[in-house]
Protein: FHA domain-containing protein
Amino acid sequence: MGRSDEHRVQVVHPLVSRSHARIRHLGATCEVSDLGSTHGTFLAGERIRGVVTGTLPASMQLGPAGPVLHLVHETSAPSPALGRGAFHEVLIGRDHACEVRLGDLLVSRRHARISWDGPSPVVEDLGSVNGTYVDGHRITRAEIDADSLLMVGGSRLQVDASGVRLIEGTEVRFATVGLGVTLPSGRTLLDDVSFSLAPGALMAVIGGSGTGNTTWRI
Structure:
């Protein structure tokens, strides 16, 4: 994470470097490393050196008086398999007509199709906006097996002969408390902004010209 828009988490703040820190989720713990930032990365109030492992929940601060992020551990309940019944194929998406319906804004209305016509299930992306991934690779069409990890939006799925299963997931929620941005001239753009984003959530920042709505982007 950092000020650069190349990062998955972009935080624009005077005390945040272009490439500031890296977070790695390890279940009930997280691994935080500072990337040579100018003002440092603080975990539980202590400036870290190198790589530090912390227990979730944890408070992380970018710079001594910069934005504070709260990292928490969340576990979703396991879901039963969504049986395919007599279908040779099922659709995945937000549309009510889909056999596997996911209420995720990152999922297109008709996102992907899974078919069982051959010896192995085949997943096909249906021109979705955010893509379909198998084992971390964006695909157009691919054969999968019971060990393959299918990513559709923020959902992790596994496919076998019985159908599609939502995998029990552990995710890190992104949250910030008291975020503020003040220009060198003394003008305040953001003052005491706090929010929390669940995995797969989208947030819109709306405001008129000069109100700070383009000052930072997540």
Observations:
- The longest strand covers residues 170-182.
- Confidence is low (pLDDT under 50) at residues 77-81.
- Residues 81-166 form a domain with the Tumour Suppressor Smad4 fold (CATH 2.60.200.20).
- Residues 131 and 216 are 25 Å apart (CA to CA).
